[in-house]
Amino acid sequence: MPALRGPTTYDNEPPRNPLLKVNAKVPFNAETPRSALIDAYVTSVDMFYKRNHGPIPVLDDSDRYFVTVGGLVQRHLAISMDDIRMLPKYTIVATLQCAGNRRTAMSKKRTVKGVGWDIGALGNAVWGGARLSDVLKLAKVPEYTAVTEAGGRHVEFTSVDVCKEENGGPYKASIPLLQATSPEADVLIAYEMNGKVLSRDHGYPLRVVVPGTIGARSVKWLDKIEVNANECQGFFMQKDYKMFPPTVDWDNIKWPSRRPLMDFPVNCAICSLEDVSSAEWGKKVIIRGYAFSGGGRGIERVDVSVDGGKTWVEARRYQKEGVPYVSDTEDCDKWAWVLFELQTEIHPPTDIIVKAVDSAANVQPEKVETIWNLRGVLNNSWHVVHVNNAAKKISSNL
């Protein structure tokens, strides 16, 4: 068992970078400032967004820490850190994103419920650990298994933390068994982030990383792995992180009518423009930002308009500097964001707009009103930056 269960008070929180944009102090939720998002392809650990539902657990990776593997499997296990480290180590570059990223734009149209995220509730990191499929093999669950002999179809992850939404119980979530047992899905039981031991804020000593899927499924501070017949019945699978049409409100909502969110849709945002001085207007400026899509789908192109959508120009895409980005090549990090850049002139007043298209030809919707939902999740409408000549400032319709 873990050396210490999740605390119920906030007396032992880890230190945080003061440059983070704090959206809630208790529990602590903070995002990366816009300009810092594009400082580097890999987001530093201290500037990576923090999404929490309770106090940060205090655990160690000594002999007292075990992750149990059970449920509808042939062999039940208690796995130590040494056991995990003995499995083949894999590293993946993957973007994690809160489902509420860019929620503020929805709240400007109509009230939504949730943390008021700008465009920085995401980050790109190098994750290291064992593949979940290798862990499940130890429990006699073969690769590429959709259902076990005992009827297991879903893999549930349980954390150590304490959440008010779970009535003081731990955070939990699940993914389909086929995804969990497929090596190509790259689901990790991670113990490293950017080549270093996980920090407390990011799940030390073990966390799940489910690439291409909303961050809510990448459970931190891992305690249990269970193979079950049904998907997780916890709050964050059944009564949160679901997307409803604009007609649904809190009076007529029916939670069982919608599936839990999994893959995130194609999205992009401008990070380089917040304030533009008058000296830059009419001269060349560099428009930079990120683009990504879920499920391992690459970014086919990023379109930029500096005249409110009348004309469009394709931006340059890259991941590693100096290497042209082409999805589905050995140089492509398929789970990671793509950075884009365009040098152009702007002439206020105008709207600067970006929209992305992924490798499956999925296109971002134009207006946030068409995808508004009461939880403010998965806002992937066009990202618009308003250039106001009179105010000589940049404001954003995120």
TrEMBL record:
Metabolic or biological pathway: Sulfur metabolism; Energy metabolism; sulfur metabolism
Keyword DNA repair: no
Chain ranges of the Oxidoreductase molybdopterin-binding domain: 53-235
InterPro entries reported in the protein's UniProt record: Ig_E-set (IPR014756), MoCF_OxRdtse_dimer (IPR005066), Mopterin_OxRdtase_euk (IPR008335), OxRdtase_Mopterin-bd_dom (IPR000572), OxRdtase_Mopterin-bd_sf (IPR036374)
Catalytic class of the enzyme: oxidoreductase
SUPFAM superfamilies: E set domains (SSF81296), Oxidoreductase molybdopterin-binding domain (SSF56524)
GO molecular function, one term: sulfite oxidase activity
GO cellular component: mitochondrion
Keywords: Metal-binding, Molybdenum, Oxidoreductase
Pfam family, one: Mo-co_dimer
CDD domains reported in the protein's UniProt record: eukary_SO_Moco
Coiled coil: none
Every Moybdenum cofactor oxidoreductase dimerisation domain range: 260-389
Protein EC: 1.8.3.1
GO annotation terms (biological process): sulfur compound metabolic process
Cofactor(s), names only, from the UniProt record: Mo-molybdopterin
Protein name, UniProt field: Sulfite oxidase
Organism: Picea sitchensis (Sitka spruce)
Taxonomic lineage of the native organism: Eukaryota, Viridiplantae, Streptophyta, Embryophyta, Tracheophyta
